[in-house]
């Protein structure tokens, strides 16, 4: 009976050794997976930090560009105001020019009439100067 008991115990030892080998392999695999996971966590943390920095840089850029846009809008508004003032000045000057040209035309017409009268009068009466009978008309603004 002792031999059989020893064989049974040896059989049990082999089973336990096989079980131990399997557990050691599973433990090694688990350790390997743990290291892989830790590496992946480090990579993701690094990537996350890089993304955060990029986001900050982009936000700074957006803020600067929005500030530039505000500045450009203000400059455009100022330029439009100046353009409107210049246009108003131009229209006023144009109107004054047209009025001055109209007065000059009227003055030239009046002078032509007086000269024509003067010539007609000098032919009939001899050498009387027609200019002395003119009343000067001041049409200049």
TrEMBL record:
Keywords, ordered alphabetically: Coiled coil, Cytoplasm, Motor protein, Muscle protein, Myosin, Thick filament
Main subcellular location: cytoplasm
Region feature Disordered, mapped onto this chain: 17-40
Recorded GO CC terms: myofibril; myosin complex; myosin filament
Keyword Cytoplasm: yes
The Myosin tail domain, residue ranges: 3-117
Cell compartment(s), UniProt: Cytoplasm, Myofibril
One Pfam family in the UniProt entry: Myosin_tail_1
Family: Belongs to the paramyosin family.
Record function comment: Paramyosin is a major structural component of many thick filaments isolated from invertebrate muscles.
Protein name: Paramyosin
């Amino acid at each position: 009976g002792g031999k059989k008991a020893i064989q049974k115990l040896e059989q049990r030892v082999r089973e336990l050794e096989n079980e131990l080998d399997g557990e050691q392999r599973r433990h090694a695999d688990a350790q390997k997976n743990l290291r892989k996971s830790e590496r992946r966590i480090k990579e993701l943390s690094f990537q996350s930090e890089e993304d955060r920095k990029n986001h900050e840089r982009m936000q700074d850029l957006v803020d600067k560009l929005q500030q530039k846009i505000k500045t450009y809008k203000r400059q455009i508004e100022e330029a439009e105001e100046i353009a409107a003032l210049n246009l108003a000045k131009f229209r006023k000057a144009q109107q004054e020019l047209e009025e001055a040209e109209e007065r000059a035309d009227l003055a030239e017409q009046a002078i032509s009439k007086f000269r024509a009268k003067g010539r007609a009068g000098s032919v009939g009466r001899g050498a009387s100067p027609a200019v002395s009978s003119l009343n000067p008309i001041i049409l200049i603004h």
